[in-house]
Amino acid sequence: MVYTENWSQPSILELARSGNFQALNYWIDSLLRPEGIYARVEQAQAGCVQILVEFQREFAADTTLVGSTLREGLVKFICHQLWRLNSPAVEGVRIHARLAGEPDILWQQSVRIVTPANRQRRRDRSRMVVDWVKFKTYRSLLLVGSALASFVLGCWVSYHEAIALRLVSPVSPYQQAAVMSGPPPKRPDAVQAALEVVPVWQQKQVANPYDPTVTLMFGGNVNLSDAIAANGNDYHWAFANMDEYRQADVSMVNLENPLTTSTLNSGKKQLNFKADPESVKVLTAGGVDIVNLANSHAMDYEEPGLVETINTLNNAGIGHLGAGRDIKEARRPDIIEVKGQRIAYLGYYDADLHAADQGKAGTNPRRNNRVAEDIRALRGQVDWIIVNYHWGVELADYPGDWQIDLARFTIDQGADLVVGHHPHVLQGAEVYKGRPIVYSLGNFIFGGNARSDYDTAVLKVSLKDRNMKVEFLPVEVKKFQPKVVKGATGERILKRVEQISSIFDRPMGSSIVLDAPINPAMAPKTSNSPLPTPAKNGTAFPAPNSPGSSGQTNPPAPGQLKPTPILPPLPAAPKGQENSSFFQNGSGSATESNPPQNKDLPPRIYRSQPQNPSREVDPFTKEPFIKEPFISPPSPIPGAVLSPQSYLPPTGGVSFKVALKQQPTNTIAPGTSCDASQSRLALPQLAAIVVVG
C-alpha cells in the first residue's frame, strides 16, 4: 500500500493570500529582516492588517532617519508587497514603528490598499445589491400602476448610476490622464530656454531600443592633432577598443581643438591646436554624439576656426555646446530626447578670455547668474540637466574651494549632474544633495600631449525612471588608444579615484545608485521607445541651425533570530518582463511602491538624506591652497628635443651618485651630566651627500 500525505502543499504566498496571518507574518518579516527591521503581523480585523515593525538599536543614533527618511519608503514597500499579494481579505494596513526593546511608538500610519481581488469582490457585492433592487422594483411594478411604476423606475436608474460612479476605484494622475484623453499627450518639440526657443533633438539610433534604461557616456579631453593626425586616413583606430562609446545611447567628450584649415591664430597663446576637418570621422566612428566647445582651445584660430568647426560638426551630425557665433548660440543648450527621456546639456568656460557677446563669436563664459537662469528656465521642461565646466588648474589632483562652491551652487539651482574637465588629470568626485559632481575626467584621447600612455577613466550614467546609476569605468591608454580595463589595473585606477575623492564629506565611489524625486512641474512621462534600428554609427541629430540613502543590504548577523523552519520556503518573486541592465529584480505593476534592494546593486543614496549625518568637520580646508586659476606648462630642459605642441616635454633619465664622507662622531660617556654652562653637544653631520646629475 502506498501512502501519500499531500500531493500539493500550498506555498507561503498562497497561504498568505488566503488570509493566513501567520504566513503573511513570515512573508513580510523575511523581506524586512535583511534590512535590520523586524515585523510582526496580527490577524486582520475588518480587512485591516496590523503590522508592528521594530528597528535595530543602531538606528537609534539618528531619530530623523527612523522618523522621516525611512518612514515613507517603508510604508510604500509594505503597501507594494500587500498589493502584489492580491488578497481579497486585505483592504488596508495599519503600521506601528518603534525601536527594538522600547515600548514607545515612534510613528504609526494607516493606508487603504485597493487590490484587483477586493475590487472584484466589491463588484460582485454591488451586483448582488443591484439584483436585489431589480427584484424589489419588478415586484413593485406588479403592485402599482404604470404612472407610479415610471416614477419608481426613474428613481432606480438614477440610484444605479450613482452607485456605479461611487464604485469606480481611485486612479493615479497618470491613469486619470490616460482615461480622460486617451493616448498620452505628445510633448512639445521645442523647449523655452533662457534666451530662445530650442528644438528637441530626437535620438532614435540606439543599440537596445527595448531596454528602457538610457545610458550616457562622458569622456575627458580629446585632441585630434599631432599624433592622432599622423595616422592618415585611418579614422577608426582611435576608438577601436572603446565599444562602450558606440553602445551608449548618448556619448560626449570635451573637444580641445578646432576642426579647421585656417592658418590664422591669436598669436598670444603658447599652444595652439587644430585638426583637419576630416578628423571629425574619428568622432563619428567612435560613436560620439555631442562635444563640448566651452574650453581654452576653441578659439585658437579665432572666429573663422570656430565657425568652420561648428559647420563641420553640423554636417557630421554631432551636437555641440558652449561656443558659437554670438552669445545666444554659445549659451544655447542641447536638448536630446532618447527613449522618452529629455536630457539638457549645458557648457561653460570659467574664463572671460574669448567670451562670446552680442555679434561676437566666442565661448560661453561662466557667470553664476547666467548659470542659475539657464537651469531654472529648463527645469520644468526636461527630465535631466547636465552641466559641463571647463575649469581648474592644470595637473592639480584636487579642485579649489571656489570650484566646490560653484559645483554645489549648480546643484542647488536644479542641475542633476556636474562634469568637469581641463586639468588633464583625474580629480575626485562627490555626492551633494543626492547629485553627483565629477570635478575632472582628465585626458581621454589627447594627441597634442607628448605622453601617449597613461591611465584615466570615463563616466557612465544610467537613467531609468527617476533613478540614476553613476559609475567610473577605468581606462588604460596606450599609443593614444583607450580601452576599458579590469583586473589589477582597473582596481588600481578606481582605487586612485576613491583616494582623491576622500577629501569630501560624501565621496562618490566607483559605482553608486541615486534616487531622484519626481519634479511636480513636469507632466507624467510615458515610455516611448522607438522601433528597433541598427546600432548607432554616429547620431540622428539635425543641425542646430537648420529648419537626451545609502541603502546597502546587510545579511542578518549570526546572533539574530531566524524565521521558524516549520513553514515551507519562501518562493522567489516574479521577475519583470523588461530586459534592463539597470535593475535586476523589476518593480511589479504598482508605480507608487519601490521593490526591495538587490544585493548585486551598489549602495543607493536618497536625495532627502542629510549630507553630514555625523556632524563631522568638513575635511577640506576653507582657504584655497591654489591661488592662481591657471599655471604655465613646465619649462623645457636645456638640450631636450620637444615634440610639436607638447604639454609634457621628454626628460632625460635622472642619475644619482652617492659620495660617502667620514665624519667624527661625538659620544657621551655613561654617568656624566650635561651642564647648561658647558658647550653644546655638536650633532653629527650627514654621512652621505647626494649629487643629482
Features:
693 residues, alpha/beta, ten-stranded mixed beta sheet, eight-stranded mixed beta sheet, 25% helix, disordered N terminus
Gyration radius over CA: 33 Å
How much helical structure, as a percent, in the residues? 10-25%
Assembly annotation: single chain
The DSSP helix count reads 13
Low-confidence runs of at least 5 consecutive residues: 1-7, 168-182, 518-535, 537-601, 608-636, 640-683, 686-693
What would the average pLDDT be, to the nearest integer? 74
How much strand? 15-25%
By DSSP, the count of extended strands is 26
> What structural class do the secondary elements suggest?
alpha/beta
Distance between the termini: 99 Å
Shape annotation: elongated
Largest sheet: 10 strands, mixed
Describe the protein.
- The strands form five sheets. Strands 7, 8, 9, 10, 19, 20, 21, 22, 23 and 24 form a ten-stranded mixed beta sheet that branches.
- This protein has 693 residues and is an alpha/beta fold.
- Helix 8 links the parallel strand 8 (250-255) and strand 9.
- It contains 13 helices and 26 strands.
Summarize the structure.
The chain has 693 residues and is an alpha/beta fold. It contains 13 helices and 26 strands. The protein has helices at 12-17, 21-32, 63-85, 116-143, 146-166, 173-181, 243-247, 280-286, 302-316, 327-331, 368-379, 401-413, 487-501, and strands spanning 37-45, 48-55, 92-99, 107-112, 190-192, 197-202, 214-223, 250-255, 290-292, 319-321, 323-324, 334-338, 341-349, 362-363, 384-390, 417-421, 429-432, 435-438, 443-446, 454-464, 467-478, 481-484, 511-515, 604-606, 656-660, 688-692.
